[in-house]
Amino acid sequence: MAKISFFKRRYNLVPVCFLLLVTGNRLQAQDTSRQAAAASLPTLSGYSQTYYYSPGQETRATQIARFMEEAGDYFQEEIQFRPRTLLYILAPADWKAVAAPPLREVYGFPHNIDSKQLAVAAEDNAFWQSFLPPPDQLPPALASRVKKAYGKPDGQLSMMPFFDLLALHEMGHSYTTQAGLKMHRHWMGELFVNIMLHSFVAEKRPELLPALETFPDMVVGAGTAGYSYTSLEDFEKLYSTLGMGPKNYGWYQSKLHAGAKDIYNAGGKTVLPKLWKALKIHQQEMTDAEFVQMLQREVHPSVASLYLDWNKSR
Predict the structure, then answer these.
(1) Cβ neighbours of residue 212 under 8 Å, at least 6 residues apart?
(2) Which residues are CB-neighbours of 52 under 8 A, at least 6 positions away?
(3) CA dist., res. 8 & res. 202, Å (int)
(4) What angle do CA 256, 257, 263 make, to 5 degrees?
(5) For residue 288, what are the β-bridge partners?
(6) Distance between CA atoms of residues 107 and 120, nearest Å
(7) CA torsion angle for 143, 149, 150, 153 (degrees, to 10)?
(8) Are the beta carbons of 173 and 191 closer than 8 angstroms?
(9) Which pTM was predicted?
(10) pLDDT in tens, 208-225
(11) Domains along the chain?
């Protein structure tokens, strides 16, 4: 999500890590405006993080806050760290005032405003709906998975169950930034937060695995036809400018979500604290070979295998 996970060609968007490349004066003015808008919003009380929500969205905000707090407790046990964040659960009108400027016209795009502030949507929206193909265009087995993961009681489909989970993906970047981890590679920065997300869901909320896994599996399973870039080398070169294009970037994120699932299935819950420790300790620059050897030796072979095996299926 990039810090965002998925894109459509019709949305001319960039990963959230590129959104705040602005001068100091402009950033200060934007933050002042956001703070003024946030000050008018109600907040939830009794939580470790600060949760702002749009009027009328307290129930929805509470649901998201409880999920995030449960994850925070889990990560506190596993990696002994908890960031300080402000999470905004917003209706469309408030989104325009609080979201990062390039995304104010794209309601529903979860993102980091900066290393501390995060924005997610309180309501279903056209952006989420755009990711759902008609079920009759999918293979029967996949269509069944999509209906199970994203079906509503009225028979309609909604990507809300998936996008709600991405709030934790975004908060993962607050963990790594505030704790001072060195990611070494852009692909690792994205993979790490996906490992965080998958580990928590698998360990504590396994009933949510269909929502987490189905969409990435659908994207990766469709193959690479139509994508100009599929190597990790290209990802590293083009990441800072989104030079691969938004749709192509979405494929990379889907692949990294699937990779996080494979890593968890191979190494279990211990991969996350080992990787956290390794990235905390190893602040020195490393070649690709040195980095992969460190991952094999100090974390788990499956993490190194993601890099080593990435291009084999192309």
Answers:
(1) 162, 165, 197, 198, 201, 257
(2) 38, 41, 42, 43, 86, 87, 88, 89, 98
(3) 28
(4) 85
(5) none
(6) 9
(7) 100
(8) no
(9) 0.88
(10) 999 999 999 988 988 898
(11) 16-313 (1.10.390.10)
